[in-house]
Write a structure and sequence with these properties.
The complex is a heterodimer of chains A (164) and B (260).
Chain A (H helix, E strand, L loop, with lengths): L1 H11 L5 H54 L10 E7 L2 E7 L12 E2 L14 E10 L2 E11 L5 E8 L3
Antiparallel strand pairs in A: 1-2, 3-4, 4-5, 5-6
Chain B lengths: L4 H7 L5 H54 L8 E3 L2 E4 L10 E3 L2 E4 L1 E4 L3 E5 L13 E5 L9 H4 L11 E2 L5 E10 L5 E11 L11 E2 L27 E2 L8 E11 L5
Antiparallel strand pairs in B: 1-5, 2-4, 3-4, 5-6, 6-7, 7-8, 9-10, 10-13, 11-12
Classes of the chains: A alpha+beta (164), B alpha+beta (260).
């Protein structure tokens, strides 16, 4: 009986094998790797949501400009790309942009999230556009903002405005 | 019964000091890499969440102001008065003014037909001022600073309204401008959140790009702290502790909903 007890005590003190240690490290690595992936994914998702919020704000401003511009009796150019506010003779004014193809940095329809002109190479850069959709007697404007999101794909936010 | 002599003898051989040292070094290296990895991605995560929070705060403020303008009875009821610098030759700035004599700043204010927004530019809540942007009902005296709200030190006396920026926030830039004679206003807003460092103000985390390396507020490492927090170009300095800093700027347009 005493011999049996000694045997178990000695076997219990034998420590871990290299295989056991390797498995334990692999499990820890998996848990840490999983956590890293989850947190990284969550960070990207937060940034993506932030960009969406900025895009919504930009498209709302675009619609506000369009509504004011339209109700003041201005004829909206069919080649309109976007509307933007600019200081003209010391006061702010809404200006139509009908010139496409200008590079980022000098294109007034490509903005940063804070509404300022996007410098060349800055990301995310939001491209604003307004489309006139006429159907019979009704006129609808569709304002949209598109940008390259954090996942490297294109995102777009669009809102419609139908003048009464 | 057969005695387990050989087995127990082999298992009790243990490690030599060299084996132990090598394994300790290896294990320490693995632990260090894991620790720095975890710290690094937690810093990134904190930075992103703080940035999103500050962005949300800016959006909420902008939306609050937009709603107030939209529902104003007329364009003429919207008035924006910038903070004014007053030279006072006294020991302390008078009640309602911030700063150190002789340079005392009176709050700026902006009114719609129903509300007033009182603000201080560049002052951090609660260390420099008890509020940075405060929304209150339009005083009966009209669009003038209400003495009760004019004093940043008397926040306990405030009975109505609410502070739109919490602790550690600063209003960097704020302007509401009419768009020509059109029934529309453009809102320009920039806020910053900083914490940590001396007195938890995080003053060392903000800088202005393009400043000479030795001047206050330069983005170069080791430069003196920024002193003017009203510069609209302010950004977070890319240095240790940058996860405790976030800046958000917004520019939006809002038209009047009620016919003029």
């Amino acid at each position: 009986m005493q011999l049996k007890k000694n045997l178990f005590t000695k076997l219990a003190q034998r420590g871990d094998t290299i295989i056991e240690v390797t498995i334990a490290i692999a499990v820890c690595g998996l848990v840490l790797g999983g956590s890293f992936y989850a947190i990284n994914h969550e960070s990207l998702e937060i940034e993506n949501q932030q960009e969406h919020n900025q895009a919504i704000k930009l498209v709302e401003s675009q619609l506000e400009d369009l509504r004011t511009y339209y109700i003041e009796g201005n004829t909206v150019n069919t080649n309109l790309i976007c509307l933007y506010t600019k200081t003209v003779s010391g006061t702010l004014a809404i200006v139509e942009d009908t010139t496409s193809g200008q590079p980022q940095g000098s294109n007034p329809c490509i903005l940063q999230g804070d509404g300022s002109l996007a410098p060349a190479g800055a990301e995310p850069a939001y491209s604003l556009s307004i489309n006139l959709i006429s159907s019979g007697s009704s006129t609808t404007f569709s304002a949209s903002v598109s940008w390259l999101n954090v996942y490297g794909t294109n995102s777009e936010v669009s809102l419609d405005f139908r003048p009464q | 019964m057969k005695q387990p002599k050989l087995i127990s003898g082999n298992n009790q051989s243990g490690f030599t000091i060299i084996e132990f040292l090598i394994s300790s070094v290896g294990f320490t290296a693995v632990l260090l890499i894991m620790t720095f990895g975890i710290i690094d991605f937690m810093v990134d995560y904190y930075k992103v969440t703080l940035s999103a929070t500050v962005q949300t705060s800016a959006t909420n403020i902008s939306t609050t102001i937009e709603r107030s303008i939209e529902l104003s009875s007329s364009q003429s009821s919207v008035e924006f008065i910038s903070p004014s610098l007053v030279t006072v030759h006294a020991h302390d700035c008078p009640a309602g003014y911030l700063g150190t004599p002789p340079n005392c700043t009176e709050p700026g204010y902006f009114c719609t037909s129903t509300e007033e927004f009182s603000f201080f530019l560049g002052e951090e809540v609660p260390y420099d001022s008890s509020y940075a942007l405060y929304q209150l009902p339009l005083p009966s005296s009209g669009c003038t600073p209400d003495p009760q709200y004019d004093s940043p030190a008397s926040s306990s006396a405030w009975t109505d309204g609410r502070s739109l920026l919490g602790n550690n926030y600063r209003l960097i830039n704020f302007n509401v401008q009419p768009v020509g004679s059109l029934p529309e206003e453009t809102i320009i807003l920039k806020i910053a959140y900083t914490s940590g460092g001396t007195n938890n103000t995080g003053d060392d985390l903000l800088c202005v790009p393009g400043q000479p390396a030795s001047s206050p507020g330069s983005c170069s490492p080791g430069s003196p702290n920024l002193t003017d927090f009203t510069n609209s170009s302010i950004v977070c300095k890319g240095q240790k502790g940058q996860q405790f800093c976030a800046v958000a700027a917004l520019q939006s347009s809002v038209g009047f909903l009620i016919s003029q």
